[in-house]
Amino acid sequence: MATEPLSQKEIEDRLRELPGWSLDDNRIARTYRLGTHFAAAALVVHVAGIQDELDHHSDLTLGYNTVALAVNTHSAGGAVTDLDFELARRVEDIAPGHGAS
Fold it and tell me: Higher model confidence: residue 97 or residue 94?
């Protein structure tokens, strides 16, 4: 997976394909709101598994019934790369469709 920084236009184009995700302080980010704390904790465990598979880790925050992710690529100087979008896409594939906050 390429770790070259993406241009602002590339980031904007890819974000259009990931509803609920946004660019926040040079990181792509999303917050999921789930029905219960248990569901939110379960999502964190699944996201952690994906991150280990990719060897690429986000800032991952568990709230009472929310899970927030924010990611960029440290090895690319903190820029957003293909790897960040791969992580986001994989999380979207397993996350319940409850929308972002």
Answer: 94
